[in-house]
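Review form for a predicted model. The reviewer records the input and the model, then writes brief findings.
Reviewer: anonymous (R2)
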Amino acid sequence: MKLRELALLLDLSPTTVSRALNGFSDVSEKTRQRVQSAAARHGYQPNSTARKLALGRTDSVGMIYPLQPNDLNDPVFHAILGGMTDRFNDAGLDLMLISAHSHNELETYRRVVSDHRVDGLIVARTRIYDERLTYLQKANFPFVAHGRSQLASPYPWFDYDNESGSRQAVERLVSLGHRRIALMSAPLEMNFAMQRKMGFVAAMQSAGLTVEPGLMMEGALNPQAGEMLMQQLIRSSQRPSAIVVDNNLSGIGVLKALRDAGLRIGTDLSVIVFGGIAPELAMGQIVTSIQQPEPREAGMTIASLLLDRLADKPVESLQTLWPTTLQAGTSDQPCLD
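Model under review:
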């Protein structure tokens, strides 16, 4: 049965029948119940495309992401995506992963929003001053940020306590007798990298230790960059006794550089990595790590925040900060110097 046939049977206009089936408030409860009962009795199935057009919805949400080859091998990334997918599926929404080039990412946002390809967006890897978030706020388009940023008005976000994680790493290394500690950061335009650096510097200063510029390395967010920067540090005259790596992708490269140089991880140089490294990628080494707990649950939480945003819940109530935890391994040992 088609919509027009159902309308003719009920002696109503097709528009009234459509609005009754889609729950519009301008249709009386009596008419709505009559239409829904007739639709069920005659086996009417609404056209999903027409329904979405009538409601102005796509029943999908998106995450625009400048994918790198290493992202596809990152178990944390997979777990977060899996949690998002499960939560959105439960709500009857599809999650679209939209690839974009890092040099014109904002253009992809503009295209997706202006064409209304999705009902809401998740913004990953937030920057300190993030033009993507500014654009979405001005466009009044629903979004949730995975990470925080500097915006004038409140916005929905999910994040971990990155500064606390760095403090925990430094405090552990100091307790093991380390004094010359290096930090390897992702690009510092990224908010998580700056937060982790701030926590590192604050912890070093609290311990009365010097933050040496030559031991502060920036720009590593993949194994290749991590390996290259670690090789430079090994060759320098300022080699530290320990290093904190602010992301797990760079950490893979750091371990490789140490092994290739014949250095024993933990004995010759202690290593703590944010996010940890799977044992199979660490050649059996149990890497001491700053963990962002339950990535799958984190993905579900991010999805729930966006669903609440789509339901027009107050933005100020849609901000969630989770703690980080230190997980001890064998990659950091007492300083021998």
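Findings: The mean pLDDT is 89.
Further findings: The chain has three domains: 3-55, 60-160+294-323, 162-292.
Recommendation: see findings above.
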